[in-house]
Amino acid sequence: MSEILPLDNNDDGEGDFAIYPRKGFSNFHSKNEIELISALESVHSKIIEILTSKLQGLDTEIHLIGSFGLDVCIFKSELDIQISSSRENFEQVKEVLSSFCQEKHREKLWGRDYALFHSEYQYPKNDKHTRTLSIDGETVPIDYVVTVKDTEKDNHYKRTRQFLEGNLDIQTLYNMLKIIYLNKTKEKYSYAKWKLWDRLERFIKDENFSGLSLEDKEALVEAIEGEKL
Fold first, then answer.
1. Alpha-helix runs per DSSP H in the chain
2. Position 76 pLDDT exceeds 90
3. pLDDT at 150 over 80
4. What is the torsional sign of CA 212, 218, 221, 223?
5. Distance from C-alpha of 190 to C-alpha of 168, rounded to nearest angstrom
6. How far is the C-alpha of 170 from the C-alpha of 186, rounded, in Å?
């Protein structure tokens, strides 16, 4: 039977950065990649079911964030989930997450309206989604972001998700960064990703944004390709 597991805290940042095409390129997927996507979608549905049950009665919204929720973005075999909570229920939501997750970066990043958690979902042995894959019996890392509704952090995640969903050019640039940093350490990739989002922030905040200009696009491509973000 599948289960939620606490974080096995053995993240050295090396060797585990694997990415796969998203469903927007389904005609080019191998059988294994199609089965992997199906398996991850199954895990996502199960996690939403678990969270909905555990958070029942609390004022929350649950959103799939990160690359797996985007149509043409390549992604790692992991899930990122945002739980947006009312101020009144924020402490209770954290207590619920603490009951089956490990707290993440509490000393560095937690605040009065923001918390991070991590768990791993174990694929069942010989499951119909995984029996032909190397992930049979392995785990899927899941990161949870808990935010208070309508705060700066909460709005940032929501704006960023909507921005990505509505701009395939940005997803393509994000893919380019992922591919360039595929064989580099997680630390280098994370820093480059942070720099990319820092450069995109002014577009994300622009309510009248209708797409990148050719000049902006060329500048971002040059910065990504030259690893000069």
1. 31-54, 90-98, 106-109, 152-165, 168-180, 186-205, 214-225
2. no
3. yes
4. negative
5. 21
6. 21
